[in-house]
Amino acid sequence: MSPDFDELVGSDLEPGERARLERVHELLVAAGPPPEPPRTSMELRPRRRRGAALAIAAALAVAAFALGAALVDGSAGRSVDFVVSMQGTPAATGAAASLRVFDLDDAGNWPMELTVEGLPPADSGRPFELWLTRGGELAALCGGFLTNDDGSAVVPLNAPYRFDEFDGWVVVQEDSETPLLST
After folding, report:
1. CA 28 centroid distance within chain
2. N or C: which end of the chain has fewer CB atoms below 10 A?
3. 149: domain CATH number?
4. Which of 25, 42, 71 is the last residue of a domain?
5. Whose CA is closest to 100, among 169, 23, 33, 2?
C-alpha cells in the first residue's frame, strides 16, 4: 500500500504547490520500490558485508538527492521575495493562482513564476494576461500565458516596475478588462 499523500504533506499548502508535490508523489509511487537483490546460497564474508552496506548507503544517498531534485523546480538558487495568492472571480469560479516574486535582479526586474490551477483555456484561443492594477484599473502588463486543457500552467513572467505604485494584481483574457483571477 502506498503512503497517503495527505498524511505526508498535510493541508497547509497553496494549491499550485500541492498539485506539483502530488504529481511528484504519484511518480514515486508509480516507480515502486527498487528490485530485490538476487539471493544466493553463499553467505557473505564480513568484508563483503561492509562493501554491500557502503553500496546501499551510496544508493540511498543518490535516491535522496534525486528525490530532492525532483521536488525542486526551475527556481532553484533564486530567493523568493514574496508570494501573492489569487482567487477566481465570479467569471472564473474555482480558479486559483500563486505568484512567486523573486528578488530584484541586477537590471531592476522582478522575475516571477505564476502557477495557475482551474483556469481552462479561453474558447477564443486568446491568451491570458497578468496585470498590476492601480485604483482597480489595469495599469502595467507583466506578461501573457496559455493554460493546459486541465486549466493549469506554470509560467515565468517579469515585472520591471516599482510595486509600491500599484494596489493589486489581476489576470484577464487578452483584449478584456474583466478580471478572472485577482488578489
Report:
1. 17
2. N
3. 2.60.40.200
4. 71
5. 169
